[in-house]
Amino acid sequence: MVRPYDFKLVEAEVLKLWKDLGIYQKAKDKGKAGKKFYFLQGPPYTSGKIHIGQAWNNSIKDVALRYRRMKGFDVWDRAGYDMHGLPVERKVMALHKIKFKPDIEKFGVEKFVNECYRFSTETAAAMSQDLIRLGIWMDFDDPYMSVKNEFIEGEWLLIKKAQEQGRLYEGEKTLTWCPNCATAMAKHECDYKEVEDNSVFMKFKVKAKDDEYLIIWTTTPWTIMFNLAIMVNPELDYVKAQVGNEKWIVSKDLVGIFIGGVADKAFQMIEEFKGAKLEGLEYEHIWNDELPFYKELKKKYPKVHTVVLSSEYVDTGSGTGLVHCAPGCGPEDYEVGYRNNIPPFNFLDEQGVFPKEAGRFAGFVARKDDDKFTEAFKKDGCLIAITKVKHDYPHCERCSSAVVFRKTKQWFFKVEDLKEEMIKANQETYWVPKSGQNAFHSWLDNLRDNSITKQRFWGTPVPIWHCEKCTAYDVIGSIAELEEKAGKEKVPANLHKPWIDNVTWKCKCGGVMRRTPDILDVWIDAGTTSWNCLYYPSRTDLFDKYFPADFILEGKDQIRGWFNLLMVASMIAFKKPCFKACYMHGMITDIEGKKMSKSLGNVISPDEIVSKYGADTLRYYMCETKPGLDINFSWEEAKIKFKNLQVLWNIHNYLLDLTRTFGLKPAKVEPAKLGIEEKYMLSRVNSTMREVEKLHEAYMLSEITPMLESLYLDLSREYIQFVRDKEDKQLVVDTIFESIINLLKIMAPSLPFITESMYQALKQEYGLEEESVHLYDWPTYDEKLIQPSTEQEVKLAKEVITIILSKREEAGIGVRWPLARAEVVVENPNVLKKVEQLVIKQTNIKKLLIKKGEMKVVLDTTLTPSLEQEGFAREITRRVQALRKKAGLKKNDKVKLVVESEYELAQKYLDELKEKVGAESLEYTSKIEIIQAQHESDAIIKDKKFRFILC
Q1: CB-side exposure of 648: number of CA atoms within 13 Å?
Q2: How many CA atoms lie within 13 A of 13 on its CB side?
C-alpha cells in the first residue's frame, strides 16, 4: 500500500537515514577532487535558540550549498558562531540576577567569564541541532568558535597587521555610548528608531552686547552643558531682528516661521548679512559664571564659545539656522570642533551620570533628565519656546536603550583613506540583488575610522601591552610572540580575561608591561571569520587553497554590519576583499509588516512552523521571497505550500500504484513512441532543468522553487490527467518515472526531506542503486527533448480547456457529460489544431470548430438522448469506482456488481461499465431481490435514483 504524506514521520526517517549512512560526509567526499567552492558562514550570535530569520537565512544557504555539491564542487562549508560580547553577557547577567556592570566585579570576573563560556558553548551546540533539524548541511562537528584560542590568535593577527601598517592608533573621540551596557558602540551597532522629543529653542547672549542674542535649538537638552560653539552656514542669509527689547540673530528663511510662529512674537528685521560675517563672534554660555570649567576651556582654546562655520551640517530645513555644537556629544560636532581646535568636552560617567563637577546638575542622567534641564533653562531665563518633534534617534541594538555620547579613549583602525579601494572592490563583487551593491557603496562612501575596543569582560582580549613607567607599548600578533615576550610558562591556557591580565614582562626602561584591560569589539570577531574559518594563521594550506570566499549570504541589515566588517578587516590584513559574491535577503515581519517582538506577541518560532507543517514547508515558503525584499509571514501562505507538497507526494504514489496494478517496471523512454502529452512533459522537465541550473549559477535563488512548483503541478494536474485513460501504460510509467527522477534531483537542494523520502520509496520498488538522492550528480538536461513549440501548443490547449470547463460550470454541466461541439476562435488556429484531440479529450467535447480571430469560445450545451446515455455511464462508473475504493479493493480485484435503477442504460455502456470497474459479472435491474451485499451505496444522478452493490 502507498502511504499518505506524514511530514513528521518522513522528516524523522530521513534525518535518521542521513545520520546512519553518513550521507552528508559522502556528499562532501564526492567533490574532493573538484573545483573548490568556499562558502563563508555568517556566524549567528549564541544568545538563544535560532529565530525565524536565521531559519530562513540558513535554508537559503543550504539550497546553494547542496547544488554545488551535486555539481561536483569541493565545498568548504564550516559552520560557525559569534560567541563573545554583550548578547551573552546580558543572558548570563539575567541568569544570575546581575543588574549593572560594577556588580559583575562583585560576582567575580573569573566566575562570570566561565559562565559566559559555558552558556555560549552550550547554546552553540543547541543551535547546531536546531539547524540540523531544518535539513541544513554544514560541518557542525567542528564549527569555528570565537571563544577558542586559535580564533583569538586570528584576531590578534589583524591588530598586528594594522599596527604594522600605521592603521592602529589610540585617541580620544566622541563615541556613541550605551549607559545601560556601560560601553562604547560602533556606528553599525546602533538601531535608529523614531521618537518624539521636545525641541527646545533658547538664546545665548552675544559677548559685550547687553541686548543681542544668538538663537539656537536642540532636541537633546542634556548636551547644552557641553556646548562649546555655535555653527552657522557661511552661504546662508541671516538677519538681526528686533524682538521687544532684544535683538535676535536667526536665519532669514526661518525668521517668520520661528519668531512669528514658534515664539509667537512680533519682530522687525533691522540688519541682513551672510553667515560668514558671524564667524568668530563670541557669546557667553548660560552657565558661564556658575561653572568654572568654561573659563578654563576658553583660556586654553580661544575658539570656545564662538561662532564657527559649517556648510555641511547647517541648513534651513528646521530650527533657527544656528546649530548648537557640542564636540563631546556627537561625531559631526566632533568633526567641526576638531577643525576649529575646540576639544571634545564631556565628563559623563559610564552610566551617563553627570559628576560633581556639574554643580547643581550633579547626579542628573543624560537624556533621562532632559525635562529637568529644560526647567533649568526656563528658570535661568534663556528658554524661548518648546515644540514637539519626531526624529530618528540611535538605540543600542543589544538592549534597546537610547544611547548618549561620551568623550572616551579608545583604540581605532584608520580606514577612511581605504574608502576608494573598498569601493572599487565592491564594484567588482557580484551582488544579488544589484541594489545591495549600491547600498554598500553608499555605506563605504561615508565610512569613518572604527573604534575596536570595548570596556566589558566577555570578549577577545586586546593584544596591547603598555609600560606603566614610559610611553612604550607592544602589540602582540600571536601566541608564540606572547610566549617569547613573557615566557611560555606565563601564557595561560585560556586567553580570556582575567587570566590574560596576569601576563606581564619588563619594558626596556625597567617598567612593567601590562595589558590594556579592554576587550575587542565583537565586530573584530565577525570581521576575521574569512580566515579564521580556514584555521588561519595556525594553518596556511587551507587559506592558500580556498581564500577568498566564493559566496556569502546574509540579510540587508548586514550592509552596515558583517559585510562592512569583512571588507574592512580583509583590506587591512590582506589588502584585498574576502568575498566574491554576496546574496542579500530582506527581513521577516508579521502579516501586517510589523517587526516581530515579544512585547507585541507576534513572534513566530521555527519550531512552530516545523511542528505544524514540517521543515520542508518552512524552506519552501520562505526561500521564494525575492532578494532584498522583506517577507510578511503568513500562516495561510505556508499552508498552501504544505498542500502543494502533498500534491508532489501523490505523484510518486500514483506511479507506485500504477506499476503495481499493471505489473510494470520503468524503462527508458522510447522517443518514437512519444505522443503530444509525453513530448510536452519531457520538454517541460528538461527546459526546467536547464533554467534552474542557470538560476543556481546566477544565485537567483528565490526564483527556483516557483519554477519547480510549476513543473510538478504540471506533471500532476496536466500530464497525469491527460493520460489517465491512455492504453500504453508502459509509456505513461516511463514518462512519469523519468520526469519524477529528474524532478527529485533538481528539487533536492530546496526540499531535501520529501525528495529523499520519495526517492527511497522508488529505490526500494525499482532497485535504484544510489544510496540517496543527494548523492546524485546534478542531472544533465537533454537539449533534443526541449521543444518550445510543443510547450506553446499545449499552453494554448490548456487555455482553451480552462475556458471550456469554466463555461461548463456556468451551464451546470459536469465534464463527465459529453457535449456535441464547441466553437473556438483563436489567433493561431493552426497551432490549436495540433492539440485539438487533447482539448476534445480533456473537455469531453465531440467536435471542435476552430476559427481565426480574437480568442473566444462558444459552447453547445444541448444534451441529446445519446449524449445523456454516455453521461450517465460515466457518472455510474465514477460512483462504482468510489465504492471500490471505500471497500479497500485493489485495481485488479474482481467483483460482482449489481446496479438497481429504473433508468435504462444501453447495453454498450453496460459492457464498458463492466470492463472499467473490474466486474466479473454485472446485473443491471430495476428491482433487486434479497441479496447478500458486502458493500453498497446509493446515489441520485440527474433526479434518477441508483443503488450499487458489490458482492
Answers
A1: 31
A2: 16
pLDDT in tens, 761-818: 999 999 999 999 999 999 999 999 999 999 999 999 999 999 999 999 999 999 999 9
Q: Could you say which DSSP state residue 866 is in?
A: H
Return the axis-axis angle of helices 562-574 and 419-427, rounded to nearest 10°.
110
Q: How far apart are CA 220 and CA 200, in angstroms?
A: 8
Cβ atoms 10, 754 nearer than 8 A: yes
Q: What is the DSSP string of 38-78?
A: EB-PPPPB-SSS--HHHHHHHHHHHHHHHHHHHTT-EEE-E
Is 835 within 8 Å of 876 (Cβ atoms)?
A: no
* Residues sharing a CB contact under 8 Å with residue 660, sequence separation 6 or more, in sequence order: none
Q: How many CA atoms lie within 13 Å of 494's alpha carbon, on the beta-carbon side?
A: 11
Residue 378 grid coordinates: 526656563
Q: State the pairing for strand pair 631-632/588-589.
A: parallel
Task: Report helix angle 788-811 to 676-697, nearest 10.
Answer: 110
Side chain identity at residue 492, one-letter code: P
Give yes or no for a contact between 399 and 552, defined as CB atoms under 8 angstroms apart: no
Q: 692-714 burial string, b = 16+ CB within 10 Å, else e?
A: bbebbeebbbbbbbebbbebbeb
- Length in residues, the chain: 951
Q: Report residue 188's pLDDT band, with 50, 70 and 90 as the boundaries.
A: low
Q: Which residues pair with 826 in a beta bridge?
A: 852
Helix (H) or strand (E) holding 678: helix 676-697
Contact between residue 603 and residue 485 where contact means Cβ atoms under 8 Å apart: no
What is residue 178's three-state secondary structure? strand
Read off the C-alpha cell for 17: 537515514
Three-class secondary structure of residue 459 per DSSP: coil
- CA atoms within 13 Å, Cβ hemisphere of 523: 26
Which residues, including other chains, have CB under 8 Å from residue 193's CB and lie 6 or more apart? Answer: 392, 393, 395
Asked if 569 and 530 touch (Cβ cutoff 8 Å), the reply is: yes
Which cell numbers in the block locate residue 355? 559628576
What are the two backbone dihedrals, phi and then psi, of residue 241, each rounded to the nearest 5 degrees? -120, 135
DSSP string, 132-152: HHTT--SEEEEEEETTSHHHH
Alpha helices in 71-148 (DSSP H): 86-95, 101-107, 109-133
Q: CA dist 667 to 216, 438, 706, 724, Å?
A: 85, 52, 29, 19
Please list the alpha-helical segments (H only) found in 446-595: 479-486, 522-527, 529-532, 541-546, 562-574
* Burial of 906 from C-beta contacts in 10 A (0-12 / 13-18 / 19+): middle
Q: Per the structure block, which three cell numbers stand in for 217?
A: 535649538
3-state secondary structure of 411: strand
- Nine-digit cell at 238? 541671516
Structure confidence by residue, pLDDT tens digits, 248-292: 999 998 888 887 777 778 888 899 999 999 999 999 999 999 999
Q: Which three cell numbers stand for residue 371?
A: 525635562
For residue 118, what is its C-alpha cell?
559555558
pLDDT given at position 107: 97
Cα 517 to Cα 79, 186, 316: the distances in Å are 31, 19, 45
Alpha carbons 277 and 786: distance in angstroms, whole number? 77
Say if residues 666 and 85 touch (Cβ distance below 8 Å): no
What Rg value do the Cα atoms of the chain yield, rounded?
A: 38
**What CA–CA distance (Å, rounded) separates 729 from 678?**
12
Residue carrying the nine cell digits 539656537? 216
- In this prediction the pTM is 0.85
**CA 783, CA 770: separation in Å to the nearest integer?**
25
User: Residue 736 and residue 715: Cα distance in Å, rounded?
Assistant: 8
CA distance 584 to 341: 42
